[in-house]
Structures are given as structure tokens and as C-alpha cells.
Amino acid sequence: MSQRWNKAVSILSVGALAMAVVPLAMGTATSSASSKPTFVIGVQGPFSGADAEYGDYDFGGATLAANTANKDGMDPFIIKIEKFDDQGSPTLSPAAAQKAVGTKNLVAIIGPAFSGASESAAKYYKAAHVAEVSPSATAVALATSGNTSWFRDVADDSVQGSADAKFLVSTKKVTSLLVIADGSFYGDGLAAVVAADAKKLGATVTTETIDAVNNGGSGVATEYPTDATQIAGKDPSAIFYGGYDADLGLLLGALASAGYSASSHTIMSGDGSNVAALYSTDTTPQSAANDVYLSESATGKVSFFTGKLATAYKALTHIKASTAIYAAQAYDGTNAIIKSLLKLGVKSSSSISSLRKGIITQLHKVNFEGVTGQISFQADGNLKDDTGAVAISQMQNGVITFVTNEG
Amino acid sequence: MTFVRLPQVKRLVSIVLVTAVVTLMTGESGNATTPPTTGPHGAFFERVSYFGLFGARRWMVFLTIGLLVYGFTFLYERYMPPVRRKVRTVTALPMRLVQKRTSRFAMYAVAIVILLAIPHIVTQTYWMYLIVEQVGVWILLAEGLNVVVGFAGLLDLGYVAFYAIGAYTTAWMTGVLPAPPFLHHVIPTLWVIPIAVLAAMAVGVMLGIPTLRLRGDYLAIVTLGFALIVDDYVGNQNGITGGGEGSLQVPHFAIDLGFWHYHWGIGPVPYYYLCLIFVALFMVIFTLLEHSRVGRSWVAIREDEVAAESIGINPLKYKVMAFAIGAASGGFAGVLSAGLIGNINPTMFQYQASINILILVIFGGMGSIWGVALGAVFVQLITSYMDNYQPWGFQINDLYMYIGALLIVMMIFRPAGLMPSRRRKREIQSFEETGEGHLDDVLTVDDS
Amino acid sequence: MGFAHFWLSGFDQIRTSFWAYLLVGLQNGALYAMIAVGYTLVYGVLGLINFAHGDVFMYGGFGAAFLTRGILGSSVASGWATVGLIFAGIAMGGLVSVGVAVSVERVAYRPLRRRHAPKLAFLISAIGASYFLETLAGKEFGYGTNLFPAQVFPVGQTMFSVFGTPVRTLTIITVVAGAATLIVADRLVRATKLGRGIRAVAQDSETSSLMGVNIEKTITLTFIVGGALAGAAGFLYSLQSGIEWNSGVELGIYAFTAAVLGGIGNLRGAALGGMVIGLFGSFAVPFAFEGNTQWVEIYTFLILIAVLIFRPTGILGEKLGRTA
Fold it and tell me: What is the mean pLDDT of chain A?
């Protein structure tokens, strides 16, 4: 008995000691040998769990921008990119945000990648005066909160959603549309916009919610066959799915089995499904993913890296640039931050907090031609030029192929 | 055949198998973009090198380590017992001193001082946040479940439902859910605490009355089903509870008494103190309950329900009471979380959380208030540490692998938990020795 | 939408697509039934809720998927190759699952039995085993991986039509394989000596051992039977939905619900319960409020709770006794 007590006590005390020591140890910074100060730009997004690709894409894009800037040596500082994992969840996002904010030398954030996570992290970044440039958080409501330190270099869901509705009803002449939401902040928001706009344009719209199995959803995979049966029975001429690729894949497979396919009807989804994985790993049979339309909240043509940048991205991350959705936005966002830092004129005596505030001010004034379009922000954080056309693509023979611009 | 049955051979085989599993556990992870055999293949065949001197494959390295451990076990058997005896004699006196009453009070006093000073020791906001969110909230949940499982011996697998009710009541009352708040009047967050706690207790009573007559395992299933229903319901009632997104705008706590107001901002420190007060409060209340008539009734029901009934204790009444009291702590944890994180959504309340809370209770020592608290602190801190610093490329998802293995090992060697209450420990030991029992729903099957 | 209208439209949907719903319900039901047998047998013999059984199912699915992918690659099989591959998939799934199930028994439960540990210890150990197995699979195969077996027949292929509704090959295979394996398991438990041993141990383990029944072997056999069925179900499930590291979790809950519904400890009860849950889950979809399918889950668990309160022994009655 006493021996066990002994063991328990010693374990607990060692553990407690370790816990106490570690945060203290964290405080000690390692001074860099070089004379240039190092600034950290964080990337907040999912780096683990089912959506880890999104975070990796953004991280790759940001790192590419940082490496380019560091390599030519012209800047009076070095940029380092760090990951902050929130698993795409709004509940884990505050923790990631606080970790980021507490990181020494962190001057700005790329992200958060997901809309729900953006919403819950906003107040922490705002309080710490850390600018956020999100490459992919498309929920409309994010720009209405009056947060002056939040920016996004991607069009929001009202743009994407209304373009999708217009494509379906006006271009594809769909008359009966079933809009399915997956129960997530992003999916529900996008689905709501599409449903409302399609109704305005004159289509008969019914809505449904099928809880996602992945991405923290609480659905069960066996519900897809039963739901597909019901949908096939109702036989709408088109379906719009607001959600992510992993669950869209399951739905497509179930629909194909129930006799409802994208080739005989029109099936469309948004940027959450606009990834190569939809064909390669998410859908069985893979052919069920063909002919599905996918939109991207990009203005102008498909905004993946092309040419030299694509090669550089592939060399850096071993990921094909044409599949890395929103990496280009992350790249542009990082460049926006770097340009702001340059404008501020960094001195060795600059304090991090003054830099953070300065970046926010500068971001409101930034204006340059990025990979994805003209980077210049409105007062509410949206891009100035976000009313442009949304890129619509289609999965053709396993490859996401650009079809048209809409909107 | 007899060769294979030799204990030494059996031990060798088990050690080799365990080594193989450990190799897998610590090896490369697969992911969605690589072929699925990458993970196991990498775990065994990846090359490792030491100081550039020589290279080997992982399986060779681990096998060597395994064989060394095997040899070591023989040395341990021969040389350890006298050392252990020595240690026991040396620590006997300090152990006795520690258990005296005055030293206990001294320990409590020191603990209180340390706890109050923690915000000054831990300067990083992020870690303070984690301490409240990962440790504080979970201590409350574990203590509450301890009342249900540890004191009353009821196997509740759906405890997270009370947590959800506390959180959603907070959101509802403060007007941040799509459904309008009660009587259309928004209530400042701090005043929601008693309301949410009462709501959780009420639900505990309502759930308990029809179901607590059920036998142990069935009670477990029913509570599990109830938790799943609550999670699903709040998850799909878009018009009432905000559906899958929940609420993203729960306001922080604030007190406005006219002459004095205080607003909990986004900093975690004020939440820490609030949490500390309530943890202390609940621990005191639960301790008083344990030694009161109610607590003794619980023990009586646990040990022999029929006998308890025959002396006039109404089992249903006390079981429902346990549910309600346990629910209070869970409900408050919900309020605290909602106010601290500022958002709630159904993914926080999935049934796995109930299992995690149960693990904390078991690990710390079922039935022991301090054991559960310390166990929760220990496990949660280790979890947060592993998650944040990721030693050896550790992934947070892998954590449950280690927890799972730890649970199996713990149940084999120390089922009573880290710091079990003495009574529970006696119960378990006597059950193990004689196989005879007591009709505790949690510990054994009620066959009557 | 008015209340009456809601119910009427629901029934109308069932009327128009009755056979489609029935077929999907049977398909899901067969899967639940197969998995439920494992839960019910282990509970009958050991009094233990084998939390790890869902993960046994999952490993079977992965094993079968690996085998078929290894044999077939990305081509599509037809004719006799299809038949052969289906048998191979079921066999491989069963084999892998049996391996996992028996390992769990040896590592997590047998040491506890030797020590006469209290029942809660078994439960916690089961939970630990479940967490360990799931996370190991997730780590090794990837948390985001959804693995599909090779196409042993063209997906979406239909074999014939009944009353105008096409019947898919997958549905036929699942239901037939499910029925076959369940019948075999039932015969095994009822008619063979080993099976009688299982029932004897479930009823009274002390007397059984006095009568010469080898308790350890019987317990192992229980896990083998349950595991084999779960593994087969894993393969069949993966043909429709692919296998992920956490496929066993929710499915396990549904299957366990089915076992309890049918009468825990009762193999036929588990089969019946599985079918009921599967069919109910299908026919309840038109009655999901606002088209939100989570209501089906809520309805299912409400029924479970109601059954437990008003008829705790399940539909066919439980078959339990004091156990080891």
C-alpha cells in the first residue's frame, strides 16, 4: 500500500514538476545568430484530422512566399512560417489562436482556414491586434462583425453561392433543385445562399440536411444508402451539396447505386469539395464523381498556381499545384503581409506589438497584383474586387477542368 | 510442446509481440494521400541511423531492445525484492507522518497557496487557457461523474448529456441561440449559472426516475442512448439550437451589481479563479455528502441493495439524488465552457466525451474525491503537453492509442485507480479474493 | 408544412418507393445483424459489453479490402471471378477479425478473468482495447483514409427488378451472405457440441466446467464466431461505403442496440434486432423533420430506451446466466 502510494506520489510530483518547468522554459527565446530579425507568420487551419489537406495546402503556399522573400535577401528581416492546428473546428480554434498570439515574434496570421474557426478565433486576434488574412474562410457573416484586423483574399459565400445558383438555374436551366447541407457552419451557410438565390431565380427548391460523417459531423455512413433511395425517389433534376469532399464522395457513391448519377442529372458542389481527392479517394466507384460541377470562390480563372510557381510549389511540398486549393490565396496573403512589413520599415528596435498594429493599418492600404487577382481590401475585410466571376469547374475523367466563369 | 509452454518461452513470445506492437505504435503514420500500407511498412522497415555510425532498420532496433528487456526481467526478478523491502522500510516513517491529520491540513494549505498563485507562475496566456479549458472543466466533469459512479455505484455512460444541457441552457438564456430565450428576456451570463445547474439537475431527475430501476448494464445502455439523443437533437434543431454550428457568440461572464461590476474578458485568468472557487465548492459539498447520511445510504445501496431496502432506505430515491447531484457539476462545467470558449457546438458533446470522463474517474480512483481530481489534472496535463509539444513527432490523434493501452494495463495491475478511496479498494480486493459479492451495479452483475 | 401533411407525405414516399426502402433496409439490417451476434454471444457468456467488437469489424473490412485490392488492383471483376473474390473477401475479413477478436480476449480479458476482477474493470479494459485498436488503425492507414475494396463487380450493377424497382447486386450479396453466415452460426450454437458448450457456460459456468466443458476454449470459440461474422460484415459494408478507422464506432452502437433489442445473449434475437433496426432506419427516413436525417438516429434510440424500460429482456427474451 505504501509502495503504491509512493509510486503515485512520485509520478504525480514528477509530472507536476515537468508541467511547471515547461511553460517557464518556453519563455526563453533563442537569439538568432544572424543580424536580421525573424518574424513569424502563423498559418491557422486543420493540420490533423480528416481535413488536414487544407491546412497543408495553405502552409505550402505561405512557405513558398516566405522562401521567395527570404531568398533574395533584399528584405531587412527573415520570415518564418509556423503551423497552428485547429482541426477546422470552432471549439479548438480559440486555443490555437491563443497559442498563436502568445508566440514570440508572431506578427500576423494566414487563416483561419475554416469559417467556423474564424468566427470563434476572431476576438482573440482582435484583442491582440494580430491581422488575419484568411485564404479560404468564405462565410458571409464573417465580414459583418466590424473587425478591422480581419481580411480575406477570397470571395465570400454570397458570391460563390449566388454564382452557383445562377449557373444551375440560368445556364443549366434546372427547374427542380434539391439543396443538401451537411450541418457544418460552412455547408449550411453556402447551401442557404444557393437555395435562396435559386428560388429567386424561379426554380423549385427543396432543402435537406444530411449530417456529415467526417469533419466532426455526427452522421453514420449507413444513412447514405437510405437517403440516396429517398432522393432517387423524389428525382430532382439537380442537386447542390453544401459540404466537403469526403462526404460528397459517399453521397455520390450511394446515389450512383440508387440510379441517380451526375451524368444523367446535374450535381454541383462548392469549394469544400473542389479537391482532387473527390475523385481519387472519396468516391466509389470513381466514375460517380465524374461530371460533378465544382465551384471555387475565386475571381477570374481558376486560381491555382501555374507555370514556374506550380513547379516551385510541387518541389517544396510534393503536392500537385493544381490540386492545392487556396494555396495561391495563402501565397498572396503572405505577400500582402510581407509588403506591409516592408512599408513599415522595420528597425531593430521595433516592438512586435507595434508591428502587429502597423501591419493592420498597412493591409488596409495594400494594393498589388497577386497570383489570384488584384489584392486590395475593403474596409470590412473583403476584397475590393470580389464581385467578379466565380470559377466553375467540372470533374472530367478524374481531372478537375475549368468550364466557365459565372456571376 | 512442453518447450513452448515453459514460462521463459512464453515470456519471450509476449515480449516480442509487445515489441512488435510498440514498433507499430511509434512508427510512421499513414495518411490519406499515400497507399495504406505505407504506415505499417514504414514502421518496420524504415531506416534509422545512429550518430552516422551505422544504419539499421527499425524492426532490428526494436527487436534488440525487446531482447534486452527480456534479459533484464530475469535480473529484476533476482535482485529487486531486497531493494523493494529496503525502500519500504525507509519510507515507512514519512508515510505515517503524511497520514496524520495535522500534516494533511498543512498539505491542504500549501496546495491552496500554490493554486492561488498559479496565474503568476504560468505567465503564458495559452497555458492558462488550457489549464481552465482542459483541466478545470474536466475536473468538474470527473467529480460529478464520480458521484454517480463512485459514490452511488451507477454505471452512467451518458454523463456528457448534462454537460451539453448546461452549455446549451447558457446559450439559450443569454439569447445567442436561434430560439428566443425564456420569457424573451436575456439574462447576463453569470446569473445563468444557477439556472443551468438546476436545468441539468432537473434533467437528471427526469432521466433517473424511469431508468434507475434497471440493472447495471442496461442502465449503461440507456444513459448512452440518452446522451446520443441529446447530442443528435441539439445537432439537428437548426431553428432552436443552431444545429451543427451551434452558437458562436456566447457572451463572456459579467457581473453588474450596480455598485460593482466585473466583466470577464477573453483572458483566461478570471475564469481560472471562478473555476477554482466552484471546484473547491463542489469538492467540499461532495465530501460533506460522502460522510453524511446520504453518502452512507449510497454505500449501503452499493453493497447490498436488498438489505438496504429492508432497513428502510429507498434505493430509487437515493439513486435519483446521485444522478441529480452529479449532474449539477456537469451542468456548471457546461456553463463555464460556454462562457470561456465563447462558442458551443454538438461536436463538444459526443458520447466519446462521456467515455473520457469515465476514464478520468477510473484512472484517478473511483469514489475518491481527491483521487479523481488529481487523476484528472494528471491525465489532462499530460494530454495537453503531448498535444502541444509533440515529442517524437507525436500526433494528438495517436494519444488514444496510448490511453487505450494504458487502460488495459491499469485494469490488469491496478484496477482501483491511482489513488482509490480506501473503501473501494477493500471492496475490490475482497471481491477478487473471494469472488463473493455485493450487488453493486458498477462492480458486478445484479442477478436478482 | 402542416403536421398532417408531414405524415401523409411521409407515407406517400414510402408507398411510391416501398421496395427501394425495403431493399436498403434489408441490406443495412443484414450488416447490423451480423455484428450484433458478436455482441450478444460475448455478453451471454461473459456478461461483458465488448466495446472492442466494432473495431474487430473494422479490421476485417481493412483486411478484406487489402486482399481484394492486392488481387484485382483497379480492374473490375465479372463472372466466376466475382464469385471467387466475394468468397475470398468474406473469408479474409472473417480471418482478420477472428485474429483481432481472439487477441483482444487474450490480452484484455483473460488476465482479468484470472484475477477475478470486478466487472467494471472488464468494461474499462474493453474501452481501452477499443481506443487502442481504432487509433492504431487510424495511425497506420491514415485518419483521412476511406478505403474501398477492389470492384468485385461493377458498382451499381443491378441483377433484376422487383415490382419496377431494380435490385442491386450488392444488396443481394449482402443479404444472402448475411443470411448464410447467420444460419451457420445459429446451427453452430444450437446443434454442435461446441455450441452447446457456449450455451452451457452462458447458463452456469461452474457446473459446466464440472461437466467437462473447457471454459477457456468455449470462451475463445465465442469470440471466434462473433469475430468471423463481424469480419464478413466488414467486407460487405466496405463494398458500399468503404472502411475508415472509425467505421466501427457508430455501427457498433447500432449493432449493440440491435442485440439488446432482440434480447441479449440470444443469437436469433440479435439477428432479428439487426433486421428491425435496419428496416426501421430505412423506413424512418421520410419522417425526418426538415429533411434532417439525424432524426432517424433519435427515433432509433428512443425505441431502444422504450424497449428497455417496458420490456428489458428484449423482443425474443434474453438468455443469460451467471458467468465467469
Answer: 82
Give the chains touching C; criterion: ≥3 Cβ pairs < 8 Å.
A, B
Q: Which residue range is the domain that position A63 belongs to? A: 38-154+326-375
pLDDT in tens, B338-389: 888 888 878 788 878 888 898 889 888 888 888 899 889 988 888 888 777 7
Interface of C with B in 277-296 (CB under 8 A): 289-290, 292, 294-295
Torsion sign over Cα C131, C132, C136, C137: negative
In C, minimum Cα distance to B394 occurs at C139
Distance from CA of C258 to the nearest CA of A (A): 15
Q: Are residues B143 and B64 in the same domain?
A: no
Residue B182: other Cβ atoms inside 10 A: 13
pLDDT digits (tens, 9 = 90+) for B122-175: 878 888 888 888 899 999 999 999 999 888 888 888 899 999 999 988 888 887
Task: For C209-275, give the secondary structure using H, E and C.
Answer: HHCCCCHHHHHHHHHHHHHHHHHHHHHHHHHHHCECCCHHHHHHHHHHHHHHHHCCCCHHHHHHHHH
- 3-state DSSP of chain C: CCHHHHHHHHHHHHHHCHHHHHHHHHHHHHHHHHHHHHHHHHHHHHCCCCCCHHHHHHHHHHHHHHHHHHHHCCCECCCHHHHHHHHHHHHHHHHHHHHHHHHHHHHHHHHHHHCCCCHHHHHHHHHHHHHHHHHHHHHHHCCCCCECCCECCCCCCEEEEECCEEEEHHHHHHHHHHHHHHHHHHHHHHHCHHHHHHHHHHHEHHHHHHCCCCHHHHHHHHHHHHHHHHHHHHHHHHHHHCECCCHHHHHHHHHHHHHHHHCCCCHHHHHHHHHHHHHHHHHCHHHCHHHECHHHHHHHHHHHHHHHHHCCCCCCCCCCCECC
Query: Do residues C52 and C125 make contact, with C-beta atoms less than 8 angstroms apart?
Result: no
| CATH number, domain containing residue A394 | 3.40.50.2300
Least confident of A398-407, B413-422, C243-252, C291-300: B413-422
A212 with A250, same domain?
yes
Q: How far apart are CA B158 and CA B164, in angstroms?
A: 11
User: pLDDT tens-digit profile of C130-162?
Assistant: 999 998 998 888 777 788 888 777 766 777 777
- pLDDT tens-place string over residues B180-215: 777 777 777 677 889 899 999 999 999 888 888 877
Instruction: Tell me the C-alpha distance between B367 and B375, whole Å.
Output: 12
User: Where along chain C do its domains lie?
Assistant: 3-141+159-310
Query: Do A107 and A226 share a structural domain?
Result: no
Q: How confident is the model at residue B444 (pLDDT cuts 50, 70, 90)?
A: very low
Q: Whole-model pTM? A: 0.82
Query: What topology does CATH give the domain C3-141+159-310?
Result: ABC transporter involved in vitamin B12 uptake, BtuC (1.10.3470)
Number of domains in chain A: 2
The residues with which A80 forms a beta bridge, in sequence order, are A40
Q: Which domain holds residue B38?
A: 2-98
Name which of A4, A89, A98 is nearest B126 (Cβ-Cβ): A98
Q: Which of A377, A354, A375 is nearest to A107 (CA)?
A: A354
* A173 & A267 share domain: yes
How do residues A199-245 score in pLDDT, each as one tens digit?
A: 999 899 998 888 887 766 667 788 888 888 888 888 899 999 998 88
Residue C266's CB: how many other CB atoms inside 10 A?
A: 25
- A175 in the same domain as A128: no
Provide the residue count of chain C.
324
| B292 found inside a domain | yes
B228: closest chain A residue by CA: A218
Give yes or no for A283 touching B (CB within 8 A): no
Which of the residues B83, B121, B245, B351 would you substitute to probe the A interface, choosing the one with the greatest number of A C-beta atoms within 10 Å? B245
